[in-house]
Amino acid sequence: MIGGARVRLNRWQQAAVAVGSAVGALLDPRRADLIAALGETTGKPAFERVLRRMKSSPEGRAILLEQPRVISANVGHAWDLPANTFGAAYAKFMGSRNFSPDDRPPVRFMETDELAYVAMRAREVHDFWHTLFGLPTNLMGESALKVIEFQQMYLPMCLMSVVGGSVRFNEKQRKLFFQHYFPWAIRAGMQCTDLMCIYYEKHFHEDLEDVRRKWGITPAPSVAKQTQA
């Protein structure tokens, strides 16, 4: 099941996993496995909508047909691309944080292989979105990206993550987030193209600013970038 074993849950089990994952993720936001489980157990209707949109888009259909995976074996060439390209910017983002594209947890709770792939794709393109929007990986940057993800996919997990993240802000961070990150993220999510219908790997060789313009992406404001981590 996209790198892991499928686990079939009845409605009560699904609710139990969702509640347990939500509580655990609030206590420790670094637990990617809990955040993933929360997204899967609460996100089926959202992933079904994304699947329909992908099927209606030429590039989305190509993604569903070929089912590319964002793993080292497939994206490693990005590290060799010219500095101005989208691929090189992604490689710099990953390398500067010592991230690996192979670290994403597997999908376990989707009912069909097609939905499982959509969920996995959403998980794996997350770092492409960080790169394109110029967002840091600190709590504010992740919360801002979750605002955009919610507008793109309407995943309940994204909304819960924003609420949970804002609770953990100190007063200064909360003011910065709601004065600068949040309104920018609302605008950015509304203005950009359907991010799940982009075959990012086929655009690695293109200029970063060119793809941003093509996809209607507005990078994070400079005030936000001062807090990068």
From TrEMBL:
<comment type="similarity">
    <text>Belongs to the COQ4 family.</text>
</comment>
<feature type="binding site">
    <location>
        <position position="130"/>
    </location>
    <ligand>
        <name>Zn(2+)</name>
    </ligand>
</feature>
<comment type="pathway">
    <text>Cofactor biosynthesis; ubiquinone biosynthesis.</text>
</comment>
<keyword id="KW-0862">Zinc</keyword>
<comment type="subunit">
    <text>Component of a multi-subunit COQ enzyme complex.</text>
</comment>
<dbReference type="GO" id="GO:0008270">
    <property type="term" value="F:zinc ion binding"/>
</dbReference>
<dbReference type="InterPro" id="IPR007715">
    <property type="entry name" value="Coq4"/>
</dbReference>
<keyword id="KW-0831">Ubiquinone biosynthesis</keyword>
<keyword id="KW-0496">Mitochondrion</keyword>
<dbReference type="GO" id="GO:0120539">
    <property type="term" value="F:4-hydroxy-3-methoxy-5-polyprenylbenzoate decarboxylase activity"/>
</dbReference>
<dbReference type="GO" id="GO:0031314">
    <property type="term" value="C:extrinsic component of mitochondrial inner membrane"/>
</dbReference>
<feature type="binding site">
    <location>
        <position position="127"/>
    </location>
    <ligand>
        <name>Zn(2+)</name>
    </ligand>
</feature>
<protein>
    <recommendedName>
        <fullName>Ubiquinone biosynthesis protein COQ4 homolog, mitochondrial</fullName>
        <ecNumber>4.1.1.130</ecNumber>
    </recommendedName>
</protein>
<feature type="binding site">
    <location>
        <position position="142"/>
    </location>
    <ligand>
        <name>Zn(2+)</name>
    </ligand>
</feature>
<feature type="binding site">
    <location>
        <position position="126"/>
    </location>
    <ligand>
        <name>Zn(2+)</name>
    </ligand>
</feature>
<keyword id="KW-0999">Mitochondrion inner membrane</keyword>
<dbReference type="Pfam" id="PF05019">
    <property type="entry name" value="Coq4"/>
</dbReference>
<dbReference type="InterPro" id="IPR027540">
    <property type="entry name" value="Coq4_euk"/>
</dbReference>
<keyword id="KW-0456">Lyase</keyword>
<keyword id="KW-0479">Metal-binding</keyword>
<comment type="function">
    <text>Lyase that catalyzes the C1-decarboxylation of 4-hydroxy-3-methoxy-5-(all-trans-polyprenyl)benzoic acid into 2-methoxy-6-(all-trans-polyprenyl)phenol during ubiquinone biosynthesis.</text>
</comment>
<keyword id="KW-0472">Membrane</keyword>
